[in-house]
Amino acid sequence: MSFFSFGQSAEIDVVLTDAETRKKAEHKTEDGKKDKYFLFYDGETVAGKVNVTLKNPGKRLEHQGIKIEFVGQIELYYDRGNHHEFVSLVKDLARPGELTQSQTFDFEFTHVEKPYESYTGQNVKLRYFLRATVSRRLNDISKEMDIVVHTLSTYPELNSSIKMEVGIEDCLHIEFEYNKSKYHLKDVIVGKIYFLLVRIKIKHMEIDIIKRETTGTGPSVYHENDTIAKYEIMDGAPVRGESIPIRLFLAGYEMTPTMRDINKKFSVRYYLNLVLIDEEERRYFKQQEITLWRKGDVVRKSMSTQATIGAQRFEGSASSESALEKAAREDSG
Amino acid sequence: MDPNDRAIAANLASGGEMADTIADTRRLFSKPQNLNDAYGPPSNFLEIDVSNPETVGVGRTRFTTYEIRLKTNLPIFKLKESRVRRRYSDFEWLRGELERDSKVVVPPLPGKALFRQLPFRGDDGIFDDSFIEERRAGLEQFLNKVAGHPLAQNERCLHMFLQDESVDKTYTPSKIRQA
């Protein structure tokens, strides 16, 4: 135990087994910066090595144990002290003792459950990380490595369109329609606005995407609204019977999947806000919630094999048999 | 055919997720518009002009009135054309009524210009031509903003101001209800 040493007597770092092959995903940090982290999905194994490097190779390092943890936690900004851990796994790497030289320890967390998507928001943060610790009597040496988790969904079985008639009595009646109620993050919103009655002087119409982050429960509920997008769909004055089309590509906007009551701590929901503005800058609006979900990337085998097999199912002729053989040869050759 | 190829073929045949289709962005179907609706007069026609200032009276009792001309096809207005004369204090009264009774954020009126009513001014005070023109423009802007507001259109005081012969300040405030 040295009171006079600069910094720590050992360095600890974590390296993943599949660091070369695993994809990285961009994720915003709390101060708005974008960084890349290793991307994991629910059920995937997290494995790697912990390297403990002694700064002074001659000196022994006494320790109270070496371990690595996999943590998934929710942190509310207004309650920083309390971290709500919903995943907490630990592997002991070394019993209390001493290290005479730098050493590497293997670890594996098999098929780890990662139920929620990583999220950094206005008032709340949900993160997953590995934490390797060399416990010592006075102060521990530890290193955290953040990872990013994405939650994937499959195409919803039920995806009804949203169609509604709204308005102000005797003043403005419209019927709006959006082709789906659940959109994936790279989807397109296709819809239309049909004017039934127009007794006001409309100047233009826009559609906004609003993200609402809700934290807290009961009496202390915080809502943070953020307008992600504003997209003008009409410039000019419509009359009765006119139909205005909507085509809004979501891939261009930074959004997360809809998160409902995550671990009973927070929600992130998305709304389409249809806004009509009249000549005196008065605004008339109608908000409608949509569900956003994340689609997995599809890994494709060679197209020629697929196409030939597909043809064979319907034709079953000698020519497609030989074509299949030829394609199989091309693939392997 | 090995099991994996069989699965791929089945998916292709059913047009499942493996097909990774490009999103269909074709427009939704909409009814073609009735030609009368497309080319006929729009249902939101409302024009209000404030013009022809006239100063009446003599000496201390002088005041200026403005002509308010309204043309509309909105059913909420009883008269499709109307012409009345009003003075500044009538506008002040209307603004007060709307602020009290409706949930409308009422726009401001052009200034009262009390300093212009002080004696020993070099010009004609509140009867100065350029002042009257400034005021006229401000009143016209005020009325256009207010009369087009769906909530203000429900107030009896607005209709009385715009279309009745004279403003009866002892009236009973009420909301217009359409059958």
From TrEMBL, chain A:
Pfam families: Vps26. InterPro entries: Arrestin-like_C, Vps26-related. GO terms for biological process: intracellular protein transport. Keywords: Protein transport, Transport. Residues 323-333 have a biased composition (Basic and acidic residues). Coiled coil: none annotated. Residues 311-333 are annotated as: Disordered. Belongs to the VPS26 family. PANTHER family: VACUOLAR PROTEIN SORTING 26 RELATED. This is Vacuolar protein sorting-associated protein 26B. It comes from Coregonus suidteri.
Automatic annotation (TrEMBL), chain B:
Signal peptide: none annotated. This is Sorting nexin-3. Residues 44-168 form the PX domain. It comes from Coregonus suidteri. The keyword Ribonucleoprotein does not apply. Coiled coil: none annotated. InterPro entries: PX_dom (IPR001683), PX_dom_sf (IPR036871), PX_SNX3_Vert (IPR042137), Sorting_Nexin (IPR051074). It is found in: Cytoplasmic vesicle, Phagosome; Early endosome. The keyword Ubl conjugation applies. One of its GO terms (cellular component) is early endosome membrane. Its main location: cytoplasm. Keywords: Acetylation, Cytoplasmic vesicle, Endosome, Isopeptide bond, Lipid-binding, Methylation, Phosphoprotein, Protein transport, Transport, Ubl conjugation. GO terms for molecular function: phosphatidylinositol-3-phosphate binding. PROSITE patterns: PX.
